[in-house]
Amino acid sequence: HDLDAPRKLFRSGNQIGKTWAGLAEVIHACLGTYRYALKPPPIEAWVVCTSYSQSVAIMRKFYELVPKSALTSRSSNSFDSRRGFGKDNPAVVFKNGSVLRFRTSSQGPEMLAGSTVDFIQIDEPPTPDIYRELDRRLMRNAGRLIMTLTPINKPCQWIKNLVEDGILAEVHARMTPDNFIPVGSTRPLCLPGGIPMDQAWIDEQRRITLKRFAPVLLDGEWETRTESPVFEAFSKSVHVTDWIPTKDVKL
């Protein structure tokens, strides 16, 4: 994978940890410890969510990850577990001058226009209009864009096309035991109560998840599974024949 690509995608099922990984990249970019080519701090970064309620959960994850000593005292003390960093243009300021803003896409692309940004994380599938607008925000500073998502709840064929065209460099993580073992460890992550996220736990998730949605929800595949029969009225005795017409027929 071209991990130094200016546009990257981390695709997986639910609860693999893709949002945490994306936020870690954002924090490194703001701190100036990002591994790939990016201008040094201070920078302006955005984390773009679908709605304010979703952004509060992501703000909470960010606050758990970020070194509090790297933030200004005002930003460090402004977090509230119920409302994150606030509802009106929530943002945090790093001591090195970097600014991270939490934006939402629910009001449309017009609300995202006009700014010049250095680094953007999009969490969960956007619409093509939102992606287009955010991509333009990065042009002047040769900025970076990362997407972290499970391909569900919105049409994602256009994102798949970007991957196939080489515009998005992709990392795809399926629900396998190896993907629940942190780098540097030999043991899987555990749920509250000490339940390991191992093969037995994965097998149980596959057993209880609706089969139609399991490929996307568990493995981050692009498409759900087709249920059979697709057409309930289908009957082989009525709709299948070995007769081949010799002229055009009207169906």
Structure notes:
With 251 residues, this protein is of the alpha/beta class. 28% of the residues lie in helices and 15% in strands. The protein contains 8 helices and 7 strands. The protein has a 7-stranded mixed beta sheet, sandwiched between helices. Helix 1 (18-31) crosses helix 2 (52-65). The chain starts with 6 loop residues before the first strand and ends in a 12-residue tail after the last helix. The model has no long low-confidence stretch (mean pLDDT 91).
Descriptive tags:
globular, seven-stranded mixed β-sheet, 251 residues, alpha/beta, 8 helices
Write the layout of secondary structure elements.
Layout: E1 7-12, H1 18-31, E2 44-49, H2 52-65, H3 73-77, E3 91-93, E4 99-104, E5 119-123, H4 128-137, E6 144-149, H5 157-164, E7 169-173, H6 199-208, H7 214-219, H8 236-239
Parallel strand pairs: 1-6, 1-7, 2-4, 2-5, 5-6
Antiparallel strand pairs: 3-4
Helix pairs in contact: 1-2
Number of helices: 8
Rg result:
22 Å
Task: Report mean pLDDT, rounded to a whole number.
Answer: 91
Biggest sheet: strand arrangement = 3-4-2-5-6-1-7
Q: What portion of the residues fall into strands of 2 or more residues? A: 5-15%
What would you call the shape? globular
Give a concise summary:
The chain has eight helices and seven strands.
